[in-house]
Write a structure and sequence with these properties.
Elements (H helix, E strand, L loop, with lengths): L1 H6 L10 H9 L5 H13 L1 H9 L1 H7 L3 H10 L6 H24 L5 H29 L8 H5 L4 E5 L1 H4 L9 E7 L9 H20 L10 E2 L12 E3 H11 L2 H6 L4 E5 L1 H15 L7 H17 L19 H15 L11 H10 L5 H25 L10 H11 L3 H24 L18 H5 L10 H19 L4 H14 L4 H9 L2 H12 L1 H9 L4 H4 L10 H14 L4 H24 L5 H31 L6 E6 L1 H4 L9 E8 L14 H17 L10 E2 L12 E3 H10 L3 H7 L3 E4 L2 H16 L4 H18 L15 H15 L6 H10 L5 H24 L11 H10 L5 H34 L1
Parallel strand pairs: 2-3, 2-4, 7-8, 7-9
Antiparallel strand pairs: 1-2, 1-5, 6-7, 6-10
């Protein structure tokens, strides 16, 4: 008693009524604080007074330590004989409700303490009632193969707590929403029907024991209707049948319901496994903005069905379903969780306030909005508890009489005007904060184009309804709301008709539209980005039409944050891969993850947030992270069949642009694979392979993992032609063979390529050894004249084989990327060192007196120009850009990347740059051209 008295920080105002005197009389020796508390409770709540009268002796003892007393009731829920269990549970419910109510009114327990105690007893009561029902079936021999000991742990059946019980948020008069399932794999197929019948009977017995109202009261009103297709299915279903239903027919409201689902009684492990299997249904892999409209429709349907629309009038207002009520906060939170929870497991929490806290931490909602809504939620739930506490009524409505409001104010320990003002303020703030979120799903993001703006070709616009993305009624409805704003944006383009054709191509290639259109409605700023992309970059637009889900990344919270670097990317990818158990799922996850980051780099480049050098480095970081993250996954999968790699393992060596850490949006990955079997002849696995064959097939498995066109498309194209002996050699080369070939058989051009080689993935010691070997090969003395002769010959062959494809071809032709790179590699080779970046190679060419200081500076400038063009054109098109396909928006992008004003200035700048570099390289190799010609002849 003293413990609770010390905890009390405030008490309700006390009415001088007979009920207050009756309550005081029950505890004549209680200290003043307790006497005030029971008098206040008795005067305001006939329900609590009745409970005190029925449980006086227990209550008098429980005052000394209410939490411990309630816990003893919970722990002892099933500690009686089956014939006494029903009344025992009813008594337990009375005691828990009484002491929880008194501690709540006294301010001694928080909202979480109150709802937690009520929920813990609901769990215990459900477990006790279920065990009794199952044991009855076992005794009758109706559960094949099961014993009474099995019944204690569910005998293969689980009760899922849904709604407030699942979230541990039960109120005083809550129904408990349950879904009952059994694991059919625990039984022989011939016993399935007998087992199902027994589980159905046990479920009905459990529900009856909890639900039936007698002179001793009831335990919990029990609702079993949240199960799949409840009108025709048994009250306890097989898990497999439930899984099939959710996979094929599950609706958004059922997904939302499972946010709070948790195993509460029976076979908890089986319940956890079922929820794990159901995870893809509840938590979509992509941002699910279509869920907003579904949630909004549910809100409106509830309002219409209950007649709860219109402005707030406190008299009789429904604190749960009415305007600004509890349900609006719950829908707001759960819908945000559904949108992003598939991508971020941290959002998969059950509690409402807990969910808002995580959403705020992840920047899905503003922190101040989360704090405000959480405060209002607690206040709303407290008011709900008080109105239910009056008569144990399943109600959520405010009083309709002045006397009722006086009673509520007393229970809230507030003056009546202050209570009314507080309720009105909170309800209005909740409505404003949540309605703004849902209202975006029904309002056009921008006004329609003004009549004096551009008039588009009606034939193009009219044919949109025939496109796949608009064939569904939902897709067409959503697009109809977006269309005016999109046309207005297109009309503001420099060449509106050109922009319209680009958008038409994007829309025509879009296989489905509901998700994207829903996303654009709730995030209008994405429409501007979409128009920019389709107007400027046909390649990016075509990619976007096939992978519209990458727009998820734009609003994912970190799209414009600092670049994480290669190691940060690897950490993120590894975490994503570890979340998947299936190999193919990991490959698809890797593709989705990589595409989103790839898209981010492209958008940042298109928007002018990154320069060409940074773009090249970021694409390289991404590719290297993919190789480092995927290589162990491929090895693990391959090892399952053939055993772990024999010997020391294998190393992926990046060549060309990958080795130089400078890639474009459309780059292939040049690689070679070097392994060391350490004289181990074969692998040790279920299907062992000779070491040479093992590494060849492992390499092919990696190539397939990268290039296979799966659901998410390809990762990268892989080019292995720089391996020893080119396409004629094995795809994987042993360390000994690699050393022998490079030291004695390799051509000069292969050593030139080696100047840009860098190990990317593999065992650290082997990577160091391969790197050391490359350095050893490059450090060997070589004849200057012979080397430059070979370089001149190679330059002549390249000029013949790969002529320039026009002004926009930055790679092929005299004075362009490949030409400058060749000279830079020659400088590095003659210096006997690696020079993965071209600037270093040009510096070595300068040191080797191949070019002068001034010429070297010109080559560096021209290379930067060529690289900027290459990076930009590969974003606009995966192949060499053609003049006729380059739209006005694309031209503006190219001009901006080269810091010139007009296309003519750009043409002149490129022409002049190519000529300068070609002249310098031609002069540097002039003394070796004749030799090259004689060698070729």
């Amino acid at each position: 008693m003293r413990t609770l008295a010390r905890q009390i920080t405030r008490c309700p105002r006390i009415f001088t009524t007979d009920q207050a005197q009756d309550a005081r009389a029950l505890f004549p020796d209680a200290p003043p604080e307790i006497s005030a508390l029971v008098a206040g409770a008795g005067s305001t709540s006939p329900y609590l007074l009745a409970l005190m009268q029925k449980e006086t002796d227990w209550c008098r003892k429980a005052f000394d330590d209410p939490a411990a007393a309630v816990q003893r009731v919970i722990d002892g829920a099933g500690d009686v004989a089956p014939d006494q269990l029903a009344n025992h549970l009813r008594q337990g419910k009375r005691r828990v409700a009484l002491m929880t109510g008194l501690a709540d009114l006294a301010g001694a327990w928080s909202l979480e303490d109150v709802t937690g105690a009520l929920t813990d007893f609901a769990d215990a009561a459900t477990q006790a009632a279920l065990t009794a029902g199952l044991k009855a079936q076992v005794k009758r021999g109706k559960l094949p193969g099961m014993t009474e000991e099995d019944a204690n742990t569910g005998a293969g059946m689980v009760v899922l707590a849904m709604g407030k019980m699942g979230a541990r948020e039960l109120n005083y008069s809550s129904d408990i929403d349950l879904i009952c399932l059994f694991d059919e794999t625990r039984f022989d197929p011939t016993d399935f029907h007998d087992a199902r019948t027994a589980f159905v009977r046990a479920t009905r017995a459990m529900s009856g024991m909890l639900n039936d109202l007698t002179g001793e009261g009831y335990v919990f009103r029990t609702d079993l209707r949240l199960r799949p297709d409840s009108g025709v299915t048994p009250v306890c279903m097989a898990m497999e049948a439930a899984e099939r239903y959710y996979e094929s027919l599950g609706r958004t409201w059922e997904r939302a319901a499972y946010i709070k689902a948790r195993p509460a009684a029976g076979d908890l492990a089986a319940g956890d496994q079922f929820l794990s299997v159901l995870r893809p249904f509840v938590w979509r892999k992509h941002l699910d903005f279509a869920a907003i409209q579904d949630a909004h429709d549910m809100r409106l349907a509830i309002r219409e069905h209950k007649g709860l629309g219109g402005k707030v009038s406190l008299s009789g207002h429904n604190m749960k379903l009415g305007r600004g009520g509890i349900r609006e906060i719950e829908f707001f939170t759960q819908t945000r969780q559904l949108i992003a929870g598939g991508r971020d497991p941290d959002l998969r929490v059950r509690g409402t306030c807990e969910g808002m806290a995580v959403l705020a931490d992840k920047e899905w909602i503003p922190a101040d909005a989360a704090e405000t809504l959480c405060d209002h939620y607690r206040a709303h739930r407290t008011v709900e508890h008080r109105v239910q506490m009056i008569r144990d009524a399943q109600t959520h409505t405010l009083p309709q009489s002045d006397e009722g409001f006086d009673r509520l104010a007393a229970m809230m320990d507030m003056d009546l005007p202050a209570l009314r003002s507080d309720l009105e303020r909170r309800l209005e703030e909740v409505h404003q904060l949540t309605e703004g979120f849902f209202a975006g799903s029904t309002s056009s993001p921008t006004p329609a184009a003004a009549p004096d703006e551009h008039v588009f070709d009606a034939a193009i616009v009219d044919r949109w309804l025939s496109y796949p993305a608009l064939r569904s009624a939902r897709g067409a409805e959503l697009f109809a709301e977006l269309k005016p704003g999109l046309l207005a944006r297109l009309a503001r383009a420099t060449k509106p008709d050109e922009a319209l054709l680009a958008f038409d191509g994007f829309l025509g290639g879009l296989p489905a539209g509901v998700q994207l259109f829903s996303l654009l409605k709730i995030n209008p700023q994405l429409s501007d980005l979409l128009v920019d992309i389709v107007s400027a970059s046909p390649a990016l637009a075509a990619y976007l039409s096939r992978n519209a889900s990458v727009f998820d990344a734009v609003i994912g919270g970190d799209f414009f944050s600092d670049w994480p670097g290669e190691d940060g990317l690897l950490e993120s990818l590894t975490e994503a891969l570890e979340a998947e158990e299936d190999y193919e799922a990991r490959l698809d996850t890797c593709r989705r993850w990589a595409k989103e980051w790839h898209f981010r780099i492209g958008v940042h480049h298109l928007r002018g947030l990154l320069d060409a050098a940074t773009v090249g480095a970021q694409y390289a970081d991404l590719a290297r992270a993919v190789l480092r993250g995927l290589w162990p996954v491929v090895i693990d999968e391959f090892s399952r069949r053939h055993g772990p790699p024999p010997g020391r393992g294998a190393v992926l060596v990046g060549m060309g642009s990958l080795g130089a850490r400078r890639l474009t949006a459309a780059s292939d990955l040049d690689m070679i694979v070097v392994y060391d079997s350490a004289d181990v002849e074969s692998s040790d696995g279920k299907r062992p392979l000779a070491s040479r064959l093992y590494y060849a097939r492992l390499t092919q498995a990696m190539i397939t993992a990268m290039t296979a066109p799966m659901a998410q498309g390809k990762l990268y194209e892989v080019d292995m032609r720089l391996r020893p002996s080119g396409t004629q050699g094995p795809v994987a080369t042993s360390l000994a063979s690699f050393e022998s070939y490079q030291m004695g058989q390799a051509w000069v051009w292969e050593h030139l390529a080696l100047t840009r080689a860098e190990c990317v993935a593999g065992p650290d010691d082997l990577m160091q050894e391969v790197s050391g070997l490359c350095n050893k090969v490059l450090a060997r003395p070589r004849d200057r004249a012979d080397t430059l002769h070979e370089v001149a010959a190679m330059r002549a062959r390249l000029a013949t084989a790969k002529a320039a494809g026009g002004i926009w071809d930055a790679k092929n032709g005299p004075g362009r990327l490949q030409d400058i790179e060749l000279l830079a590699q020659a400088g590095a080779l003659l210096a006997g060192t690696t020079a993965r970046d071209i600037a270093s190679g040009i510096a070595h060419a300068e040191q080797q007196k191949i070019v002068s200081v001034d010429q070297a500076e010109v080559l560096r400038k021209v290379y930067r120009t060529c690289w900027a063009l290459q990076a930009a054109t590969r974003l606009l098109s995966p192949s060499v850009l053609r003049e006729e396909s380059l739209g006005q928006a694309g031209l503006r992008f190219l001009c901006r990347t080269h810091e010139v004003e007009t296309p003519k200035e750009l043409h002149d700048h490129l022409t002049r740059s190519y000529a300068q570099a070609a002249a310098i390289i031609g002069e540097a190799l002039a003394d070796y051209v004749d030799k090259a010609d004689r060698g070729q002849s």
